[in-house]
Design brief:
The protein is α/β, with parallel strands linked by helices. The protein is 40% helix and 14% strand.
Length: 399
């Protein structure tokens, strides 16, 4: 269902990805208006189609629904010569190919970057793997949890004592998908000027290391190994959760002006003058002194009261919401973060709205996450296949 007014109208994406990093990338491209054709194995499809519960009443996996809207599904047996030929026919029409097979898989099928450029000059080829196409780990499969562990995220996440934690969502997969989308958009822009394609090598581990950001910079500048701080910030104090008399809440005094307002609101204005606490650098140095003092104050009253105090003083603070509370929040609802789409299996399915808000060219949810092979005939007809050829492919189990 093309949308000629969409930002990526006319761009066709061949999506050979599964699970999360790749599908999230291609869903973002689909949200921007690209025609995304998701190529899946006949009879099975994307692994996440079976990842549940929960499932919808019609049997669709909630996990699959999260990363596959605005796509059409084509089933192809890529282990067969006829399936590969159909893929080549797709590539000849395509603008972008995204895949997340183990490194070198497409090259072994005769579809390395140079071969792809012969099929479709100017094609943008993006591969997403665990460790990239070079280096001693290039042949290993990639998993978000393993990348978080190997790439340092778990060394930073969790309480000061005890077990390191992974982030509660597959943050490395999601970041890799977002960065891959960015790289593809830059390549499309460059192709307008040069006509040249690009060979993009995205790795979960690379993305995870990049996500270390200022924590990595802290280490590279100081040589000091970062330690887990629970919900605290390594460079700002106070910037963490505190336990009120009933539950935890979050407070962020991001500069010395906010600090002075906070302690005045807490009835402790002397702390803004104390040389141990007056400047942020001193507070960071003396966090083991000031944080317990703050914790003692906050423990005396309920979180709602402290949130009101902070709001009145202009101090950033928030309740630590459950997921239900997130979707009941007035700001989340005002921003329309959830949409419901009619699904071909029946009923409606919920979708998180894209966070990319173009007021001049609003994004559209054109297609719900597809059924496996839902668009086979539509896409094969687009390739110029006649009915007899389509039926022959079906009879041989190739689509």
């Amino acid at each position: 269902m093309p949308n000629d007014a969409a930002l990526l109208a006319g761009i066709q994406v061949i999506d050979l990805t599964r699970v999360l990093a790749g599908p999230y990338c291609t869903m973002m491209l689909g949200d921007l208006g690209a025609d995304v054709i998701k190529v899946e194995a006949p009879g099975k499809g994307d692994d996440t189609r079976a990842w549940g519960p929960p499932f919808t009443e019609s049997g669709e996996s909630a996990y699959f629904l999260s990363a596959n809207r605005n796509k059409r599904s084509l089933t192809l047996n890529l282990k067969s010569p006829a399936g590969l030929e159909t893929l080549k026919d797709l590539i000849r029409r395509g603008d972008v190919l995204v895949e997340n097979f183990k490194a070198g898989t497409l090259a072994r099928l005769g579809l390395g970057y140079d071969a792809l450029q012969e099929l479709r000059p100017g094609l943008i080829y993006c591969t997403i793997t665990g460790y990239g196409t070079t280096g001693p780990l290039a042949d290993l499969p990639g998993y978000d949890f393993i990348a978080q562990a190997l790439g340092g995220m778990m060394a930073l996440t969790g309480p000061e004592e005890g077990e390191p934690y992974r982030v509660g969502v597959a943050i490395t997969d999601l970041m890799t998908g977002i960065l891959a989308c960015n790289a593809i958009l830059a390549a499309l822009f460059a192709r307008q000027r040069t006509g040249q394609g690009q060979n993009i090598d995205m790795a979960l581990l690379d993305s995870q290391v990049a996500t270390l950001s200022y924590v990595a910079s802290n280490y590279l500048v100081s040589g000091q190994e970062p330690r887990r701080l629970g919900n605290a910030h390594p460079n700002i104090v106070p910037y963490q959760s505190f336990k009120a008399s009933d539950k935890y809440f979050a407070v962020a005094a991001g500069n010395d002006g906010q600090w002075a307002k906070l302690v005045k609101a807490l009835g402790k204005p002397q702390w803004a003058e104390d040389e141990r606490f007056a400047a942020n650098a001193a507070r960071v140095k003396n966090r083991d002194v000031i944080v317990p003092l703050l914790a003692e104050v906050f423990a005396a009253r309920p979180a709602a009261e402290w949130l009101a105090v902070c709001d009145a003083a202009g101090i950033p603070a928030a309740p630590i919401n459950t997921i239900r509370e997130v979707f009941e929040h007035e700001q989340v609802q005002a921003r329309g973060r959830v949409h419901y789409m009619d699904h071909p299996a029946g009923g409606q399915v919920p979708q998180l709205a894209s966070p990319m808000n173009f007021l001049t060219a609003p994004l559209a949810m054109r297609l719900p996450p597809p059924l496996l092979g839902q668009h086979n005939e539509e896409i094969l007809h687009m390739l110029g296949y006649d009915e007899s050829k389509i039926q022959a492919l079906k009879a041989d189990g190739l689509v």
